[in-house]
Specification:
This protein is an alpha/beta fold. It folds into 2 domains: about 240 residues, QueA-like (3-Layer(aba) Sandwich); about 80 residues, Beta Barrel (Thrombin, subunit H). Helix content is about 20%, strand content about 25%. Helix 5 packs across helix 6. The radius of gyration is 21 Å and the shape is globular.
Length: about 350
């Protein structure tokens, strides 16, 4: 299967630059994966498509303000780093700009000397390992000095950091938001719960690899990035019991989907625990647990559109995306939503 099979024409102005003032006011496209039928609605009507006994699975990761601006101590030259993953208490893998000027042994300073780090080494893909020094609690220092690492296609400044967090975010560690969940309000989740829909949480810390383009012609040759996940036993029990009782497993977002499918055994039982997943889901994949998916509208030729095509069928998705463009749906992180049922 070719990467070009997942191309569609997306005008740049359809990529949403700002979140809506009301999270649940976004458009909702409902796609029947068996029939290919399409309906248009609003996200606050999602409850109409959920049944008592279904299980909604949410990714409760929380985005850290991972972008830091500072200077090299020796030259006072400007520098920017992006935190990627924590190696231990104070050591992180980061990306640095300008990369060629950030060398092992350099000391970097941020926020009027509130935060400092030493560059220890350069590793694969030009990433750096740095060791931080600070007073107090690292997360509090980062919250004061860091900025949200918005995707590269968003040029507008985010005025409220919480709009790039889900209302149920809990466990810090992501470099990007699980954006399908941005549509939910606390009130809407309470209504869903009151209808008898089970709600379960998994954690997958989203990495910047989610934005990495597929650069190979044949998608079988794509090297999928790895991300860390955690599934508690109590949450696995909720999901497994819902499935056993005949409820649908409705995954909110591609990150929840990848977590669930990575941890489900051949008997269709979700296993609890933690680990790293680099599962790459594309057409031909047989889903072991997930029945339905709430997701955003993704970019052409991305691993994300390949995943939704695996669930709904490539032709159904490309038809739906063509319709989305014609009807001025907003795309990607701050954009509108799709339910594949």
């Amino acid at each position: 299967m070719k990467t070009s099979d997942f191309y569609f024409d997306l005008p740049e102005e359809m990529i949403a630059q700002d979140p809506l003032s009301n999270r649940a006011e976004s458009k909702l496209m409902v796609v029947d994966k068996e029939k290919g039928d399409i309906k248009h609605s609003k996200f606050y009507n999602i409850i109409d498509y959920l049944n008592e006994g279904d299980c909604l699975v949410l990714n409760d990761t929380r985005v850290i303000p991972a972008r830091l601006y500072g200077m090299r101590e020796s030259t006072h030259g400007k520098v920017e780093i992006l935190l990627l993953s924590r190696l231990d208490a104070d050591r992180w893998e980061v990306l640095a700009k300008p990369g060629r000027k950030v060398r092992p042994g350099d000391r970097l300073v941020f926020g009027d000397n509130q935060l400092r780090c030493t560059v220890e080494e350069i590793i694969e893909d030009g990433k750096r390992v740095v060791n931080f020094e600070y007073h107090g609690i690292f997360e509090e220092v980062l919250d004061r000095l860091g900025e949200m690492p918005l995707p590269p296609y968003i040029s507008h400044k985010l005025e409220d950091k919480e709009r790039y967090q889900t209302v149920y975010s809990k466990h810090q560690g992501s470099a990007a938001a699980p954006t399908a969940g941005l549509h939910f309000t606390k009130e809407l989740l309470e209504e869903i719960k009151a209808k008898g829909v089970n709600i379960a949480y998994v954690t997958l810390h989203v990495g910047l690899g989610t934005f990495r383009p597929v650069k190979v012609d044949n998608i079988d040759d794509h090297d999928m990035h790895s991300e860390f996940y955690i599934i508690d036993k109590s949450q696995a029990d909720i999901i497994n019991n819902s499935k056993k009782s005949g409820g649908r497993i409705i995954s909110v977002g591609t990150t929840s989907t990848r977590t669930l499918e990575s941890s489900t055994n051949e008997e269709g039982i979700l296993e609890y625990g933690s680990g790293w997943t680099n599962i790459f889901i594309y057409p031909g994949y047989q889903f072991k647990l997930v029945d339905s998916l709430i997701t955003n509208f993704h970019l052409p030729e991305s691993t994300l559109i390949m995943l939704v095509s695996a669930l709904a069928g490539k032709e159904n998705i490309l038809s739906a995306y063509k319709l989305a463009v014609e009807n001025n749906y907003r795309f990607f992180s701050f954009g509108d939503a799709m339910l594949i049922k």
